[in-house]
Amino acid sequence: MHVFVTGGTGLIGSAVVAELLGHGHTVLALARSEASAQAVEAAGAEPLRGGLADLDVLRAGVARADGVIHLAFGNDFSTADAVARAVADESAALAAMGEELVGSDRPYVTVSGTPWVPGWVATETDPLPLEGPVGGRGRAVNAVLALASRGVRSASVRMPRTVHNNGDGGFAGLLTGIARQRGVSGYPGDGTQRWPAVHALDAAVLFRLALEQAPAGTAWHAVADEGDAVRDIATVIGRRLDVPVEAVPEETFGPLGVIFATDQPASSAYTRDTLGWKPVHPSLLDDLENIVKG
């Protein structure tokens, strides 16, 4: 299958590109810069220059492909406005690519986050949040899944709060960055809230399986660790960086503070049973041992 991938040079995307190439697929990857294009070529894929805001470029990429995996998202979480812009850009891109796929029966795999359900371990059947800082992403993903009624084999891979590799990535990576800046490994609330996690290499396998096998209109959970207490995550970070570990106000984490403070464990039992997905790489707490001081 010739697959168009957005976000193909990021932590998850580079793993997905390698996974696809390693299983006989070819890849056309969106590249925002010359450096990204060179990284795509070095990985063995073909670059397509452009970004998520270049809707005509996205349509052209989809037109050349047998299937699509969308992973790109803005990385600026500094303000609520920045997050809103990233959500709006992604929503427009998803809609444009989806329209290009209507009636083709081609696979269209997009990404979202696992939902949080008060007092419950979230499963694949729980709905995505449609309000709050990332509610727009939930609405956009639901629109992609609704394309199943218009001849698109659409699917969503829901990612946990931390997708990690070699001690970096996801919300835990943000905690590490803040700890480096502030000299304190902080956590909001009492730190007992749980975050699910997955290694990027395991997540990449699930994206491939969803591309190859997922029925139209389905959602899947890329969850290896059901939920690690945020205080435990901060404790490993603090030990590795040799900084104190303590509770800090939600506001420390900007617009994501409310999400950081939420208990949000998630299960992937249905995904594992149905698609045969089996995570094999290190857990988050083990992988965080790779953090290097300095």
Calculate the terminal CA-CA distance, rounded to whole Å. 43 Å
The backbone outline, from C-alpha atoms, is: globular
Structural class: alpha/beta
State the CATH architecture of the largest domain: 3-Layer(aba) Sandwich
Q: What's the order of the H and E elements? A: EHEHEHEHEHEEHEEHEEHEHHH
Number of strands: 12
Please report which band the strand proportion falls in: under 5%, 5-15%, 15-25%, 25-35%, 35-45% or over 45%: 15-25%
Protein name: SDR family oxidoreductase
Pfam family, one: Epimerase
Domain NAD-dependent epimerase/dehydratase: 3-216
InterPro entries: Epimerase_deHydtase (IPR001509), NAD(P)-bd_dom_sf (IPR036291), NAD(P)-dependent_oxidoreduct (IPR051783)
Features:
NAD(P)-bd_dom_sf; 2 domains; alpha/beta; NAD(P)-dependent_oxidoreduct; UDP-galactose 4-epimerase, domain 1; Rossmann fold; 294 residues; 3-stranded mixed sheet; 11 helices
Outline of this structure?
This protein is 40% helix and 19% strand. With 294 residues, it is α/β, with parallel strands linked by helices.
Q: What do you see in this structure?
A:
This is SDR family oxidoreductase. Residues 3-216 form the NAD-dependent epimerase/dehydratase domain. Pfam families: Epimerase. This protein is an alpha/beta fold and 294 residues long. The chain folds into two domains: 2-162 and 197-225, Rossmann fold (3-Layer(aba) Sandwich), CATH 3.40.50; 164-196 and 227-290, Alpha-Beta Complex (UDP-galactose 4-epimerase, domain 1). It contains eleven helices and twelve strands. The strands form three sheets. The chain has a seven-stranded parallel β-sheet with strand order 3-2-1-4-5-6-10, with helices on both faces. Strands 7-9-11 form a three-stranded mixed β-sheet. Helix 1 (11-22) packs across helix 7 (200-213). The chain is globular and about 55 Å long. The termini are far apart. The mean pLDDT is 95.
